[in-house]
């Protein structure tokens, strides 16, 4: 923290913006106040970060860069904004300096950007005979409108150019569409007749010059009264543009538009709105933060479209994660109002949901209105997990109590029968879900053979075919087999092959396939976890070893899938195919496969019908929990390519990634396996199956099942959402064979 007159001057009348949870400060240093030896004007900059322990902003040492080109300036104005650099794909702080000559005949503009090395670098300069208003900073490019025309200049252009718009526009409104590559557009009214009685809304993409119907963004009556606008979402469906936006009008209204139609309105408490920002408070929802002329600010809940809070006497307002807790907060700097101190000493940080830090508003002493904020998202997730675990334990205890009650009732009934001389009738233990601790009379004859069968393998150690299914996905067929496997007799090198019926030929043709193996959850009795930890009688252990029921503790469920092209099947005229299972069996898990003997098992036949319904139940309704939906999910996991990425965020927690995928991207959770999220935008070729696993609050693993193009599009959206400090690294080659574990319902 630097002390001195130069630092005090920087923070006394600052121009502020926020980036990555920090406040960046800019200020103009006149020639008379410059350092010795430097008679020219300069722009100073520094940054300040919030420290919760002291409830203050710690200010860093300032730096300065000289600006020249005009000997004397009657007036100097600074505008700073964070703009997206399209070439470098990073958010860059930009400073636009306006210097007016003494006679007011010319205006000289200088654009500077703050590099990653914290240096303010000049980009370009240009001179205009007028003062531009309503300019837009982007990439770094300066856009503005004047006299019904749109102009722009950039480092690549090298000069001021006019964007050729074929039709004249009036009442121009700038905005940006949040598409995969954000595009700046301008809306305006075009008069159809010379008498200006008939008008329509036209929109133009400033960078490409493409025209579109502007009424899908703002309807005609609102273009002339809109003072500022924020586009929330934009997408193209069947060539049509779908837009959701909010606009603050000169009639003191905040209006929500959906595809050009008014969906909701909220009266605003102040006049002359100037800017709209969106704050994401996590599970508490979104807030629109509207700034007004003369230092007024209000916040509006997005869900209810009602006023949340209002403030006055504000010098600047910012939305960012200043506390580093993974969600946004609103930072308001207040005018001192006669109180001694720098502008950064009078502030309020709040999310209107329990987080509140303030300093210098009422007294000179620091004031903390709330304890240190916790990461509410992670806390709630942990509490929900503990609640679910406790509920499961409670249900198991209740089930055991019911079993004990039935045993006590049957014991009392048996005692009454014996004392009354009635015939004793006992219910078989299997009917009550119990296991006998001794053999019945009917099984006593088998006791002599128990020692002989003690060490023998299972009666049938081959995998048991539980179900055979198939799906047609575009030009491919997916065949799947659900197996019941005894884990005490491991199998390896499991795969499927498809054989075509060849008529008179004795040797069937083998279709080339690619197989995958997926482990499935096995339904087990509720008391299996406790029973497996207790010693059992010898007779019971013997019978379990030769059992092959689905509830056997040694039984595992496995899904083996194979995918093949439909062309060989259709060319051969085959309508039925035989499915063969190939595997290698060994006696125990510790034996070496020195000379493995492959085993082939016939699974059944599938009929190929290209006239069947290609729209699967999973795509129709991901909320279903049927066997068909499970098979649809296995089909997608087989057909789609798979990528796995490791995300590391050293500065911000990743607790809201799952919520962003569901709300912003528009995915639906697959209830049959909740670890997956499904995004279906336009048919099977655009399918995306996502899986997000939180490792730590700052690390996670993202799996993407899709085509390569869809994967790149999704990563582009994710990189635009994540902070700049995040790193996304691939952790696995998609071409390597893998075994996937499918979570239970």
UniProtKB/TrEMBL annotation:
GO terms for cellular component: Fanconi anaemia nuclear complex. Residues 430-461 are annotated as: Disordered. Residues 439-449 have a biased composition (Acidic residues). One of its GO terms (biological process) is positive regulation of double-strand break repair via homologous recombination. This is Putative Fanconi anemia group B protein. It comes from Scophthalmus maximus (Turbot).
